[in-house]
Amino acid sequence: MKYIDIKMNKIDFIRINRISPRYRVNSTVCPHRHDDMEMHLIIHGHGEMEVGNKTFPVSENSLIISFPEDTHRLILTGNSPYILQYTVFFELTGGHSEFSAMLRRRFRCGIINDKTALLFPEVERLWNSDNELLRQAAEHLLMSFLLGVTAAGDAPVVHPEVEKARAYMCCRVAEKLSLSQVSRHVGLEKSYFCRLFKQTTGETPMRFYLKQKIEFSKELLDAGRRNAEVAGTVGFSDEFHFSRRFKKITGMTPRQYRSRKFTNQGIACRSNG
Question: Would you say residue 270 has pLDDT above 70?
Answer without folding.
Answer: no
